[in-house]
């Protein structure tokens, strides 16, 4: 016999036994959390590693921007000025964890171990994503705003259901927080207590729109209260501080305590992309003020103060950056050998009937054109 629920009554939801957190415990830091310039004892090995990565990352951004202006890439969204967020996001998670980057997070992917040329493949207008996400546990660089956030929640929730000890770290800009995907991701993550950390790199502008025209909240970190998760506010140019906050949030997620929303206050020194004219919506004085708060300068000054950075170490960091720049220059010197039929590869594990039909049609058209014009395509591309 089937027993029907009484009208107006519902069975208890699966999370009904979960106590609601005290809203006061979710409020973010009243001021951005900082380490540099304070009384904290420096972690020498970590701070030096952060410094080396920052210097290398800055050189990477400079080199790729130059190559884009030379026509070697279609476009590049530089993270110059935001390197502390990028480096901390790559180093804080464990190897088994997943990173979900936005389109501006190429440096985070490279620092995580993705081959720099493969990480730039999409920005060259070349095929697909350019790298295997599973190799380094780095999801594809995501151009649509905030759509990577629900994916991160889904992976984290699925990992927990499977019993895998995995945390997802999802990166997004301040502009992405105005998207519906941001709300949906944080809402599901909090309800499910998914092991995921959201890092918002608040760099001041969503292209040309300042934060004040996007939200009236005291900070983006305050939005965490409405979802029932902790919010943290951190100085995004203080590399040790960002690393500390992310490490703490990842540990919290891994322990089963649920997600955290971290807002890192930073600044986009370069334009939105190499196709943007930032002079139309911000002043040179504003940029100069943020240059004085440069993440490399801040960390180098502190390392010098504690006697942890020698001229030799500084030179080694610069040389590492030059080696990476040379490698990128050499790899992007020539156009990639394109195979048009590869467009249909890696779309599905097993090609659909429609894809097979389209592949055959393209191959026939290429062969017909090559018959008319022998030099139309090189042999490998037919």
From TrEMBL:
<dbReference type="InterPro" id="IPR029061">
    <property type="entry name" value="THDP-binding"/>
</dbReference>
<keyword id="KW-0670">Pyruvate</keyword>
<dbReference type="InterPro" id="IPR050771">
    <property type="entry name" value="Alpha-ketoacid_DH_E1_comp"/>
</dbReference>
<keyword id="KW-0786">Thiamine pyrophosphate</keyword>
<dbReference type="InterPro" id="IPR001017">
    <property type="entry name" value="DH_E1"/>
</dbReference>
<comment type="similarity">
    <text>Belongs to the BCKDHA family.</text>
</comment>
<dbReference type="Pfam" id="PF00676">
    <property type="entry name" value="E1_dh"/>
</dbReference>
<comment type="function">
    <text>The branched-chain alpha-keto dehydrogenase complex catalyzes the overall conversion of alpha-keto acids to acyl-CoA and CO(2). It contains multiple copies of three enzymatic components: branched-chain alpha-keto acid decarboxylase (E1), lipoamide acyltransferase (E2) and lipoamide dehydrogenase (E3).</text>
</comment>
<feature type="region of interest" description="Disordered">
    <location>
        <begin position="1"/>
        <end position="32"/>
    </location>
</feature>
<protein>
    <recommendedName>
        <fullName>2-oxoisovalerate dehydrogenase subunit alpha</fullName>
        <ecNumber>1.2.4.4</ecNumber>
    </recommendedName>
</protein>
<keyword id="KW-0560">Oxidoreductase</keyword>
<feature type="domain" description="Dehydrogenase E1 component">
    <location>
        <begin position="53"/>
        <end position="319"/>
    </location>
</feature>
């Amino acid at each position: 016999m089937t027993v029907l629920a009484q009208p107006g009554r519902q069975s208890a939801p699966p999370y009904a036994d979960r106590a609601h957190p005290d809203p006061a415990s979710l409020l973010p830091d009243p001021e951005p959390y900082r380490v540099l310039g304070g009384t904290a004892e420096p972690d020498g090995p970590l701070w030096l590693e952060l410094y080396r990565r920052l210097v290398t990352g800055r050189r990477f951004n400079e080199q790729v921007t130059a190559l884009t202006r030379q026509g070697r890439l279609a476009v590049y969204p530089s993270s110059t000025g935001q390197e502390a967020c990028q480096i901390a996001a790559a180093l804080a998670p464990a190897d088994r964890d997943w990173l979900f980057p936005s389109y501006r997070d190429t440096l985070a992917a490279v620092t995580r171990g993705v081959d720099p040329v493969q990480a730039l493949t999409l920005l060259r207008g070349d095929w697909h994503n350019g790298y295997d996400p599973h190799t380094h546990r780095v999801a594809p660089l995501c151009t649509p705003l905030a759509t990577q956030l629900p994916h991160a929640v889904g992976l984290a929730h699925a990992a927990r259901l499977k019993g895998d000890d995995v945390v997802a770290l999802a990166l997004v800009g301040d502009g992405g927080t105005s998207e519906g995907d941001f709300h949906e991701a944080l809402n599901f993550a909090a309800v499910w207590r998914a092991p995921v950390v959201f890092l918002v790199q608040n760099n001041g502008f969503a292209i040309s729109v300042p934060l004040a025209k996007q939200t009236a909240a005291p900070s983006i970190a305050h939005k965490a209260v409405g979802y029932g998760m902790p919010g943290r506010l951190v100085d995004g140019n203080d590399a040790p501080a960002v690393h500390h906050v992310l490490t703490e949030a990842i540990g919290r997620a891994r322990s089963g305590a649920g997600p955290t929303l971290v807002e890192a206050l930073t600044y986009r020194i370069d334009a939105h992309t190499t196709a943007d004219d930032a002079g139309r919506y911000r002043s040179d004085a504003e940029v100069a003020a943020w240059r004085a708060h440069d993440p490399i300068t801040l960390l180098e000054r502190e390392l010098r103060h504690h006697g942890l950075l020698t001229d030799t170490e500084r030179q080694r960091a610069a040389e590492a950056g030059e080696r990476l720049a040379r490698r990128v220059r050499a790899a992007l010197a020539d156009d990639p050998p394109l195979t048009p039929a590869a467009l249909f590869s890696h779309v599905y594990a097993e090609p659909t009937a429609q894809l097979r039909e389209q592949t055959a049609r393209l191959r026939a058209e290429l062969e017909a054109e090559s018959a008319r014009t022998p030099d139309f395509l090189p042999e490998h591309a037919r």
